[in-house]
Amino acid sequence: MFGRQVFGLMVMSSVVFSMSQKLLMDFEGSTPPPGYCEHSGEWKDGKCQCTKAYTGDRCEIEKCTNGGRLYSVKGKGAQTKCHCPFGLSGDRCENVTYCEPGKGKLVNGKCECSDRWTGLFCQIRSCYNGISPSGLEGHCLCDLGYTGPFCDIPLICENGGEVNDNNECSCSTGYTGERCEDCSVGYIQEGRYCVPEVSESSLLAHTGSLGNRPFAWPIVLMGCAAAIALVVLAMTVIFAVRKWSAKPSRVNSVQGDPENGTDV
């Protein structure tokens, strides 16, 4: 009697095992029972597709956050723990324990960052018109037309300058400086503009055309006035000499005219 009971239990166990194996094999080509994939996982292509926060055959294992490394606890079966990076703690590295000095403060396991700082530890600059790519140690790479530590200052080139592909000002001829605000070497400030600096000895050679250099005309006019004055003076002298030469000699007037018989 006892032997028959044992035999019956063995048969039932074999049947249950076969059915479970068949059920698992059927999952490969069909949909498993509802809830088989845990934590909102979905059955697709013969396996559970887990959400970002979970892993495992049935999405039963919660991942580590903030770059933590997941490992299995020895002697604890399927139990897992997280090895957290510096500045983080908690079962899944969800708690912050460190903030960058002077850039944020720790409040309830999170960093409250100061103005213009962001990131898990307040280690990243808030770039208003640009990005803070990895490898630049928190510095901003500004968009064209902006500058400053936080890319919040418009880059305006003065005196006709333009922003180039290096996010710098390309200045017009005669101008230099970060914003094209200064005169280049060989140019001087005249009012709002920078003009070529020209010496008197090279005035005509440098200007080429007097019509394009108004400041040269006073010199020309002074030269013309001097020439006219010299001509007038010369004509006056010549006229005076001729007039003096045309007067009769006083000697002839006193001695008389022999041909007319005039006695002295």
From TrEMBL:
Q: Per its UniProt entry, which superkingdom is the organism in? A: Eukaryota
Give the signal sequence positions: 1-18
Q: Which InterPro entries match?
A: EGF, Innate_immunity_reg, LE_dom
Q: Where is the EGF-like domain?
A: 55-94, 147-181
Protein keywords: Disulfide bond, EGF-like domain, Membrane, Signal, Transmembrane, Transmembrane helix
What's this protein's name?
Answer: EGF-like domain-containing protein
Biological classification of the source: Eukaryota, Metazoa, Ecdysozoa, Nematoda, Chromadorea
Which Cys pairs are S-S linked? C84-C93, C171-C180
State which residue ranges cross the membrane: 215-241
